[in-house]
Amino acid sequence: MSSPRTHVASAFDLDELVGVKGATTVSVCIPARNEEATVGQIVERIHTKLIETRPLVDEIIVVDDHSTDRTAEEARSAGAKVVDASQVLVEFGRGHGKGEALWKSLYASSGDVVVWCDADVRDFSTRFISGMLGPLLTDSSVGFVKGFYERPVDGHVRGGGRVTELVARPLLTMCFPELGEIVQPLSGEYGGRREVLEQLPFVEGYGVDIAMLIDIVNRFGAQTIAQVDLGERIHRNRPLHELSPMAAQVMQAAMRRIQPGLVPDAFTLSPPDLDAHKISYAERPALVTIESYRQLHPRLAD
What we know:
There is one protein chain. The protein has 302 residues and is an alpha/beta fold. The protein has one domain: Spore Coat Polysaccharide Biosynthesis Protein SpsA, Chain A. Helices cover 36% and strands 21% of the residues. The protein contains ten helices and 13 strands. The strands form three sheets. Strands 1, 2, 3, 4, 5, 6, 7, 8 and 10 form a nine-stranded mixed beta sheet that branches. It has a two-stranded antiparallel ribbon with strand order 9-13. Helix 1 (14-21) crosses helix 5, helix 6 (162-175) packs parallel to helix 9 and helix 8 packs parallel to helix 9 (240-258). The protein starts with a strand and ends in a 6-residue tail after the last helix. The model has no long low-confidence stretch (mean pLDDT 93). It comes from freshwater metagenome. Belongs to the glycosyltransferase 2 family. This is Group 2 family glycosyl transferase. Residues 27-156 form the Glycosyltransferase 2-like domain.
C-alpha cells in the first residue's frame, strides 16, 4: 500500500525552485471572510518575496466570502486580485463556506499549479508557499501537496487541532489507511496541479478538506500525494462550541464516501444551552464539467 511522501519546507531552495519552475504558472489563492486583521500582511509578504524579489508566484487571488469588514480593501491594497465570491459562477446559486470559496478560487485563477493558504495566520511565512510548491515543481509524479505544522497555543506546542485528532485522523486511519499517515488532513495549507484539482467535486463547507483527500486517493492513488512540514504556525484557537459543527461536517463528508446513504444530507445539532446548528451537505461539481470553465482552458476542448 502506497503512502504519501513527506518533505520539509526548509529543504527547498527558493532560487532552485525559480529555476525549475520554467514556464509553469503558479496561483496562490486565499479564501477569506472577515479577516481584515491578517489578510493584508499575508498578501504583502507573498507579493514582496515571491513575486517582486523572486518570481515564483504569478498571481495572488483573495476570494472574499461575503465579508462585512475591510477584508477586500486590505487584500487589494496589498497587491492581491480580489474576487467577490457572490459574483463567480452565479448560475449555481449563492453558496457559502470554505469549500465554496476554494472551488470559486480555482475557477477564478489561471495557474497550472494552485496553492491555498488560510487568511487568519498571525505569523505567516512565505516558506508556507515555497514549501508546498517544492514537491510540485521538482517531482512530476506529485499531484497534490498537504502542509502540516506545529500549533503553539498559549505557549505550548500542539500537533493537529482537536477536530483533526478526535475525528479526522481516526476516521482516515480506520477507513482509508493509505491516508493514515497524513499528519494534518484538515490543514488549510495545500495545493495541487490544476489538471488534478479540476476533476474533483468540492464540498461546500468544512468537509472539503477531508473529502478532497479521499477523492484524490480514490481517483489518482496515494502515491500522487505528498505532505510538507511547514514548521510552526499560529492562528486563532476556536472555542469548543464552534468546533462541533465543523466536526459534524467533516464526519458527514467522510462517511458519505465510506458508504453513500449512511448519513443524512441534513440534520440539526442541538447542544444544551447553545444555539442549534443545521448541518447540511452540498457539493459543487468538478470544474471540468462546466462549459464556461472549459472555454477558459482550450486544452479541455472536445
